[in-house]
Amino acid sequence: MKPKQCYIDTAMSLDTLPANAPTADATLLPAPWRPMRASDLAAVEALGNRIHAALPESSTVFAERCALFPAGSWVAEHRGHLAAYALFHPWRALQPPPLDSLLGAIPATADTLYLHDVVVDPVRRSLGLAGTMIERLPMIARSLSLSSIELIAVLGTANFWRGHGFAAVEDPALAAALAKYGDGACLMRRSL
User: Fold this and answer.
1) How many angstroms separate the CA atoms of 102 and 177, rounded?
2) CA distance 151 to 88
3) What is the fold of 21-191?
4) Which residues, in sequence order, are CB contacts of 189 under 8 Å at separation 6+?
5) Which residue has the higher pLDDT, 79 or 105?
6) Closest CA to 66 of 45, 97, 47, 87
7) Residue 3, CB-side half-sphere exposure with 13 Å CA sphere
8) What tens digit of pLDDT does each residue of 108-123 get?
9) Dmax over Cα atoms in the chain, in whole Å?
10) Of 6, 7, 25, 69, which has the fewest beta carbons less than 10 angstroms from its beta carbon?
11) What is the mean predicted confidence (pLDDT) over 151-170?
């Protein structure tokens, strides 16, 4: 029996998933990446909140992201343990979602692929998992007719993202949106 992909949160069930909701295509990424399942959520939340201890997010945030856009919900395992996860979804450019908040829906007017998180367990960073995921994002964005990828660099990661083709977006109008993400947080974009 095929395990359920990550469609369930406290407000949704498989019965309420829109018929046209995209699913994760396991052929998009090589092993050890695979589509996230509902059973992965506790480990995903634990890893995310361990790595981003200053920026914790509730379990409902992880579950909702996965439910709204299963095609952007991935995990990687190494030796039977969660090694990494990635969450991304279509969104509106220059309007980053607030930290630890529910989206409600993917906007019909989405024009960017928003990278919510790529988190790798520190003891498994030498496996190249982040790079494997990041190099696939342009292909995924283009397949959705999106013209860019955006993310919020936190905790001093801007140089890492620059190395992957992202540039900081300098716009004073973003200050309020970025404030909850901590000192030095910046919106970064990679145009396609």
Assistant:
1) 15
2) 9
3) Aminopeptidase (3.40.630)
4) 93, 112, 148, 149, 150, 166, 167, 169
5) 105
6) 87
7) 11
8) 999 999 999 999 999 8
9) 51
10) 25
11) 96
Q: How far apart are CA 121 and CA 107, in angstroms?
A: 31
Q: Tokens 């395990």 correspond to what residue?
A: 3
Answer left, alpha or beta for residue 156, where phi above 0 means left and psi between -120 and 50 means alpha. Answer: left
DSSP class of 5? B
The per-residue pLDDT for range 14-31, each reduced to its tens digit, is 233 334 445 555 555 666
Distance CA 64, CA 133 (A): 21
Three-state SS for 24-86 is CCCCCCCCCEEECEHHHHHHHHHHHHHHCCCCCCCHHHHHHHHHHCHHHEEEEEECCEEEEEE
Q: In what order do the strands lie in the sheet with 167-168?
A: 33-35, 73-78, 81-91, 112-120, 148-153, 186-191, 167-168
Residue type, 149: I
**What are the extents of the domains in the chain?**
21-191
Question: What's this model's pTM, rounded to 2 decimal places?
Answer: 0.85
* Whether residue 159 has pLDDT greater than 50: yes
- Quick one: DSSP state of residue 4? P
